[in-house]
Amino acid sequence: MAIVQFPNGFVWGAATAAFQVEGAYREDGRGLSIWDTFCRTPGKVWEGDNGDVACDMYHRYKDDVKLMKDLGITSYRFSVAWPRIIPDGSGEINPKGIEFYRNLVDELLAHGIEPMLTLYHWDLPQALQDRGGWANRETIDHFLKYVETVFKALDGKVKLWATFNEPWCISFLSNYIGAHAPGLRDLQTAIDVAHNVLVAHGKTVRLFRELGIKGEIGIAPNTEWMEPFSDREEDVEAAWRRRGWLNEWFLRPVMTGQYPEKLVQWFEKLGGKPKIEPGDMELIGSKIDFLGINYYTGGIGRYNPEEGDIFGFQEVPMGWEKTDIGWNIYPQGLYNVLTYIKREFGDIPIYITENGACYNDEPGADGRVRDQRRIEYLKKHVLQVARAIESGVNVKGYYTWSLMDNFEWAYGYSMRFGILYVDYETQQRIKKDSFRWYRKLARNNYIEV
After folding, report:
1. Of 185, 253, 276, 290, which has the most beta carbons under 10 Å away?
2. Whole-model pTM?
3. Angle, to 10 degrees, between the axis of helix 57-71 and the axis of helix 433-444?
4. 315, 354, 376, 448: which one is catalytic?
5. 354 given a catalytic annotation
6. DSSP label at 297?
7. How many helices (H) and strands (E) does the chain have?
8. pLDDT in tens, 72-112
């Protein structure tokens, strides 16, 4: 058996998001979000599930922090719900909302767990969506008021701040593909949303510096790694476009202040173009302290303009194993993403802010959840992180998704990603086998293979 050691001080964490775990959707002054609306739109979410109760973490956070302590993690990534802080997105500040997150952060710190706070994980106040949402540049200014409120409330307590989680999902998945709230299907709207979110990111970084907030700030895009089926030029180019849709379109402007020109030209052929105002690109390229990388899957495909996606990319099924949500298991892709970032953008510190697997294993007769497939998935991906570190990539930490089973967006409660099993009827948490495996990894700081 070989031992693969991680660097001293490597961060082992777990992640959740506000809408997916908190519940308490109308308590203590919280306003409605676009996800509250989306869940109540027939046919949008599996069996009409919603986040009204979710994992009830709003009331159970103290017990959940104890479980984190038992897990042995040194950091917990969570998001703040904008509608809890400013219920209509632009009006009065809700002190009860601030109190909840102060209490959560204090509880984490009391148990020796550093918070990583994500400012936006998709729950836009519905009142702002009614005025155009992220496609309306005025939303940027409202967002800055919200983040300034959170910065000042938690300055000195939170050391790691992420502006946005998965801007591709905020823009293209939600406004072009229409699978997530607000469920629109318009390419130009999606491009506008992507650009305005990136401008909001840049302005947030600038505000962070101007206010002198202690700690570090970054962003957490979702990535994938699509390979060409052959070395034919059309296959190579189609795979690059598809890969670039997630990776290049968001990473390159953040890291260099420039959009990838080949994708700009491709979008223009499809009738879409970013509406860039003077100073936007400099703002977007404001220096960040770290990159958060979310990675789950990848694939192989070829150029097929008739049956492919908007980039002419058609995935070719390679017979790979899939998780229960239907995503390819492709650990090598994580290594490829990390080395690509190092190659293209230099030695930026990186945290794996999400990585995990959906397996819907239920408790056995003895109450034990035997999720060996999740353990294998995590092991394979953690090993690729170790490979990347030994190849010179500056990876500082790893957060598994997710701490607990939760509301999985359009899939409702039908898909389970947690290392804690949640019985949604009783809200009981059950430690899966993967919880115990991850605890050993976090405590030892090495992996046995």
Report:
1. 253
2. 0.98
3. 50
4. 354
5. yes
6. E
7. 17, 14
8. 999 999 999 999 999 999 999 999 999 999 999 999 999 99
